[in-house]
Design a protein that fits this description.
Distance between the termini: 74 Å
Helix content: over 70%
Number of helices: 4
Number of strands: 0
Oligomer: single chain
Order of helices and strands: HHHH
Radius of gyration: 20 Å
Strand content: under 5%
Largest sheet: none
Length: 134
């Protein structure tokens, strides 16, 4: 009979950390995720575009709500791109062979990025049209 692991045994050392130690290590993992994302062309392009778009949101937005909406759609795009990259990495880890469920997972992640791009582009287009009096 296999040895049973106690329920309180964490799968990760991170689960045992508390307070500032947990926050410090979690921040390190988050930065590692951003560095990994930077290796993806799509994320890198969107991140570079955000360096222009987020400051532009402060010029284009006429109040704090518009500014948050404009900057938020850009940040949401970065978030969805990172999640899509994570899905792709997890599917690729399972194996290189083709499988319908793997294809479906990757396609859905890609569709999420597309919808987010459309939301971002639509929001910015309408805001620019309103600002420029079109």
């Amino acid at each position: 009979m296999p040895e049973q692991v106690p329920f309180s045994s964490p799968a990760s050392v991170q689960k045992n950390r508390r307070g500032l130690s947990r926050i410090w290590h979690a921040a390190g993992y988050s930065l590692a995720g951003l560095r990994a994302g930077w290796n993806e062309t799509a994320f890198r392009q969107e991140a570079l575009a955000s360096l222009v778009l987020v400051p532009a949101a402060f010029w284009l937005g006429r109040n704090w709500m518009e500014t948050v909406l404009l900057a938020g759609t850009v940040m949401l795009l970065l978030i969805v791109e990172l999640l899509n990259t994570g899905i792709e990495a997890a599917v690729d880890r399972i194996g290189p062979e083709w499988h319908e469920l793997s294809k479906r997972a990757k396609d859905m992640g890609s569709a999420a990025v597309l919808l987010c791009l459309l939301l971002c582009a639509g929001t910015w287009t309408l805001a620019l049209a309103d600002r420029l009096g079109a």
